[in-house]
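Working notes for the structural subgroup meeting. M.R. asked for a predicted model of this chain before we commit to crystallization trials. I am recording the input and output together here so anyone reviewing the notebook later can reproduce the run.

Input as submitted:
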Amino acid sequence: MATVQDIRALVEKMTLEREKLLSQIESLSEEDAEYAPEDGEGEDQWSAKEQCCHLAEMETAYRAWVEKALVEDNPDVSRVRGEQVAIPLEKAHEHPIADLTAQLRTEREKTLKLVETLTPDDYDRTASQAMFGELTVLQWLRSYYRHDRMHQDQIAGREGSYKPRFTTGEEPDQRRIRLQ
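Returned structure, recorded in token form:
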């Protein structure tokens, strides 16, 4: 069962890492936020703007997975999708940074409201997903700040400090290819 300290640390990290990410993105010019490395593969080929939209989309997916885990015993959430975001990845370059960061803030607020409703026992509930295996609600929620950290590194052009553990041992190519 999650302790009060575990929950407090979770919320602090979710808030801190998101704020670091937002600050990093908001410091970019519009032109720099649309730059995408030509030699990148998968998510490494995305611009900061595209990564903003991807993070918003994944925020809704993780949240939907947690919500399903709260009402079913260890559901398979592989086909569960989150709600549609206002600005999807394919439309990232059609919007200014301010719109994309506002979307990230809105989605995180929704997630933190969900977290406020959880009891300590809720954090032990599980859901399974093909790429990640079986995780507890606490592990799913920790994925949020780790995912933010991973994209901070990508935007900065650094080797990622966080590497997700996939059930296959390597990252499946779930990413969309850039539309030219």
